[in-house]
Amino acid sequence: MENQEEINLKSFFYKLSSVNVGFNVYKSNNPHRICIEHLICSNCKSFWETGNKECYFCGTPNYHLFTCLECHKQSSITSSGKKCPYCGANGTLRQLCLNKNCPTNNENNEYLYNKVRNKSKSKSGAIFQGDGGFYIRQNSCKKCGSRFNEYSFAEINVVLNKNEATENYNNVFNVYIEREDSECPAKFYYTDNKQFDSIQNLLKYILD
Q1: Rounded to whole angstroms, how far apart are CA atoms 174 and 161?
Q2: CA distances from 29 to 33, 34, 35, 159 (A)
Q3: Residues 58 and 103: beta-carbon distance below 8 Å
Q4: Are strands 135-137 and 24-27 parallel, antiparallel or unpaired?
Q5: In a 10 Å sphere around its CB, with 0-12 CB exposed, 13-18 middle and 19+ buried, how is residue 177 labelled?
Q6: Residue 10 dihedral angles phi and psi, to the nearest 5°
Q7: Can you tell me whether residue 202 is helix, strand or coil?
Q8: Cβ proximity of 13 and 25 under 8 Å
Q9: Could you say which of 14, 175, 190, 207 has the lowest number of CB atoms within 10 Å?
Q10: How confident is the prediction for the chain on average, in pLDDT?
Q11: Which intervals hold domain SH2 (predicted)?
């Protein structure tokens, strides 16, 4: 039968695995610990958001906006339907690169210009949608511009006593999970004698 420490560790592991904050979770060789890692900038140590998209041709990030091929105005992809909210044109919304100096916005480059503005029903056009292959994942740090990244790594040991959530040693963090009762979700997390109100803030501290 599992003891309370094992139950807490397993529960925390599943919680980590289900929260999408851009880090990887593994079981440790030590049965009482969990391993986590996250990609960071080698220069400024800020989180490297691997889910972000960049224009293949100029590196401009995806701002999640549609550009209308008729009136050329931008609208959010979350609030726009098939019609442009400004001119009412149907089927003219494309996720184009917003950098005016991007080669894809140069009318003199006729092939590329028309390719990303494909007006057919095919989804092969546009920069950040479809299967045109015009975007790549984040290639440089959004904070300092560095092109180098590395993994930040730590081990988490879930403890039953708040007093054990003290200063970490050799990149091993003791984490105490405070609950209102044994059945409810976590209320606060503690490590290094610090309190965190969310699992995201806890992990950013640990992996910083």
Answers
A1: 10
A2: 8, 9, 9, 17
A3: yes
A4: unpaired
A5: buried
A6: -65, -40
A7: helix
A8: yes
A9: 14
A10: 84
A11: 111-208
Which of the 8 DSSP states describes residue 115?
H
pTM above 0.70, yes or no: no
- Report the distance separating Cα 99 and Cα 62, nearest Å: 10
Place of tokens 């092939």: 111
In the block, residue with structure tokens 């592991």: 13
Residues comprising the chain, all counted: 208
Position 151, amino acid: Y
Residue 113 has which token pair? 């210009």
3-state secondary structure of 112: helix
Binned at pLDDT 50, 70 and 90, residue 174 comes out as very high
Place of tokens 């990030």: 61
CA distance 204 to 208: 6
Q: How far apart are CA 170 and CA 124, in angstroms?
A: 50
What mean pLDDT do residues 140-162 have? 87
